[in-house]
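Case study 2.
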Amino acid sequence: MNPIAIRSLGRLAAILGALACASAPLRAQNLEPAKQKPPDEAHRFFDSLNVGLVAAEAGALLADGITTQYGLTHYGGREADPFARPFVDHGWTGMIAGGTLFISAEVAVRYLLHKKRHHRAERWLPTFVIAYGATGAVYNSVQIHKARQPFPR
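Prediction:
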């Protein structure tokens, strides 16, 4: 055989080998249509996680309420949140009523999200309420601590 024919056969063998290697992943793929997954079972609304989140919300708002009432009775001032101010001005009964309305409205919104199958939003919404109450309690505690410090002379 002449050298040009041998070189051509070598190139042809290399090309065929490369095509065989490149087509191997294609043969490994499943060409059947994907089967539909059955719709996942939706969780019950009042499962243990949602009940725990409601309890955490109530605890955060209670901590905010305790520190707010302590600061108002011992050091004066006024509630910083304009939405909560009418409730806080009526003492503990007003704060309990306001907290109950707040948590009830939030649970109603979460139930609507649950019914519309927005489960991530349903789980994330209480974290904002918990952060709101916890931030209020920490802020109140810092202000109370500052008020207890003697004034520099």
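The chain has a mean pLDDT of 82.
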